[in-house]
Amino acid sequence: MQRAATSVRSGPDIPALQAGILAGDRRSLARAITLAESTRADHQEQSAALLAAILPHAGKAVRIGITGTPGVGKSTFIEAFGKYLTGQGLRVAVLAVDPSSARSGGSILGDKTRMEELVRDPNAFIRPSPAGRTLGGVARRTREAMLLVEAAGFDVVLVETVGVGQSETTVADMVDMFMLLLAPGGGDDLQGIKRGIMELADLVVVNKADGDLLKVARLAKGDYAAALRLMRPRSPLWHPQVMLASAVQRTGIADIWQAIQAYRAALEPAGEWERRRADQALAWMWRELSDGLVDELRADSTVAARLPRMEAEVRVGRVTPTAAARRLLAAFLGLRGDGNRPT
Ligand SMILES: Nc1nc2c(ncn2[C@@H]2O[C@H](COP(=O)(O)OP(=O)(O)O)[C@@H](O)[C@H]2O)c(=O)[nH]1
Ligand SMILES: [Mg+2]
Q1: Ligand 2 centroid to 51 CA: how many Å?
Q2: pTM higher than 0.85 for the full model?
Q3: What residue ranges define each of the domains in the chain, with the CATH number in brackets?
């Protein structure tokens, strides 16, 4: 279908989208995120141009990752915390990284029934996890959405994830502060939470510290604090804290925001806040580079022709994985026209 001659190409008007985002227009923002999530090559190109244009206006938000096993109260907490923040006059965006959502058909944020107030709040913006086959793909789009919401003037970005594969590490790598939500009780077995996730946490929140659970929540807080003291802190400037909260009764919420401010005050003057972001940006570039190279390699016909046999030989142990990788790389590079194409 051809458009009228006045339109350069079918697709969104990028300068208009850019202006809309910078003016804080939610529809422009939503459309820009949809564009970033599209897998169409022309959309990706337009999205890249838009992201480059808004980049100087991004980076001003506090980026907070939130993780915890299903049922611990993440959605309820985000509702309470988000409403607290908008009550402080801040604008809050909620994003998610959930690589399982494509398979299960529903994102962790798809269920917005626990965020009824926040959904209707004009100072909040909630975006479910993008669908994607790989964690890398889902994470890339969430990172881009984060830049877009920042350019649109949001002050706090909450990135939610659940313990699916490597998703916590991925989210920890894109935020300033990583928060782990735990339920009271189960202090001894850490409720199946892997030690590695505990090590990523800058802040541990024992949720559901209310009613009959309050006593056991206090005990759990002590257990978790003891466990954290045995771990190496991520930064010498900050020792991860354990705090109590009730997302339902909305207690402990202000203290958590205060702890986040204290964390920032500890890291920022020393330059560590910015250094972390710089490291994250560089790591992102390298991930894009390796993803891009692997995509090119897989799309290469010479490599594609050799791949099945090579994989079979690696499977049965006739060729070592290293040797197979080297041969496939050589086949790939041989195609790049250096006259050194292996036979
Ligand atoms: N008692 C109590 N229940 C809570 C609290 N936060 C969440 N819940 C309940 O825990 C269940 C799971 O909450 P939800 O927010 O959906 O958890 P998620 O799966 O981590 O997003 C729901 O029944 C909530 O009402 C809390 O602070 N106190
Ligand atoms: Mg939830």
Answers
A1: 29
A2: yes
A3: 58-269 (3.40.50.300)
